Amino acid sequence: MNPIILNVRGLTKTFGGFVAVNEVTFTVERGAIFGFLGPNGSGKTTTIRMLLGLMQPTRGSAEVLGVDITRHPDRARPHLGYMSQRFTLYNDLTVIENLRFFGRAYGLRGKRLGERIDFALRMADLAGREHQRAHSLAGGWRQRLALGAAILHEPALVFLDEPTAGVDPVSRRTFWELLYRLAESGMTVFVTTHYMDEAEHCHRLAFIHNGRLIAQGAPGEIKAGMMRGQVLEIAPADAGRAVAVLRAAREAGRLPAEEVALYGAVVHLVAENVAGMQGEIAGALREAGIEPGPMRLIPPSLEDVFIANVR
Q1: 261: closest CA among 302, 200, 212, 207?
Q2: Average pLDDT over all residues of the chain
Q3: Structural domain tally of the chain?
Q4: pLDDT by residue (tens digit) across 197-220?
Q5: DSSP secondary structure, 42-87, as one string
Q6: Distance from chain centroid for Cα 215
Q7: 282 and 202 housed in the same domain
Q8: Backbone phi, psi, residue 44, to 5°
Q9: Model-level pTM?
Q10: 178 in the Ramachandran plot: left (φ > 0), alpha (ψ -120 to 50) or beta?
Q11: CA distance 85 to 17
Q12: What is the CA angle 268-273-279, rounded to 5?
């Protein structure tokens, strides 16, 4: 078992009468990719700010790298990295100028600064783009540059706040490959996201909703422990209308489904015995003039689990 480098107990933050983070408790081991998942406004960024020592909690405690971050934030900060939602780069500076600036801000000088800049350029595949201004980089390149800047000083723990927001799928995949390499080197990665498909790439997860943790564990453990019922994937001719029809049937008591949700061009229906409900589902859709299309049982995704339990 790897050592615990992040130990959070009952962390709470209130703003007047609003509770942004409510009694959050979890631990993170060294070398793990820890995913902190939840919708926008669920408390993810507020939690990170408290763990960085930038915001005092209302109550609770947090030990970061063995340091009480609420009492001695300056002791832990030199060993932490942070990449914000907006990639925190200076748009008018070039790639190399951004890296020099952040490296010096972290206290790197001389040969060591040069070595770490070379590492960041190789890691981010930015060699040959050193003199390109940051504002002219595509989203995926800016993302990798920001990650390189955040880990120039070789932090033991790096916080990435929604690092893939607004980035294309190919760049997201490349970015996660970089995170795996960092974790394999011993760096611990704490990443927030609202993309549930990215959660599958994490070693451990915590789901937060309205400031409260509703589940935590490895992806497989969460799916096995939280999911009630089976998932039926339906590919009707009109998925949007089909969701409305099936939800209305559920509300009327004619369809014993726990959840009906739209996933692109398909519908996911969660129930205890979906195999025995396919005739009722097809009948309800055809009655509304919708061809039900193919249906199949599928393993639940983390998004299925999250939606079912939030509701």
Answers
A1: 302
A2: 90
A3: 2
A4: 888 889 999 999 999 998 899 988
A5: SSHHHHHHHHTTSS--SEEEEEETTEETTT-HHHHGGGEEEE-TT-
A6: 14
A7: no
A8: -65, -50
A9: 0.84
A10: alpha
A11: 27
A12: 75
